[in-house]
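Feature request, filed as a ticket because there's no other form

It would be nice if the structure record came with a short human-readable summary line next to the C-alpha cells. Right now we just get the raw output. Example of a typical job, pasted below so the devs can see what we mean:
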Amino acid sequence: MPRLQEIHVNLIDRLQEVKDQGWHGEVAAIETTLAAAAQKLEALRDRAAQPSTVHLGMPNIRRDAGRSSTNYED
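Raw output as currently delivered:
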C-alpha cells in the first residue's frame, strides 16, 4: 500500500502541474487515474480493517487413515 500512496500523492502533484501549464487534455486523464488510485486505496484500507481468518478445516482421520504419499513394496 505504501507504493500506491506514493503514486496517489505524485498524481496530485502532477495534476497541479498540468493545470499550471494549461495542458487541459492531460487534466482529464490524470483526474481519472487519480480517482482510480483513490478507489483502490479505499478498497485496500477496507480490506485491511476486516479480520482475516483462514478456515483450514478439520482432517478426516477415517478417510485419510492408512494412506501414505509413497507405496513401499517388499
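Something like this underneath would help us a lot:
The mean pLDDT is 84.
The helical segments are 2-21, 24-49, 61-64.
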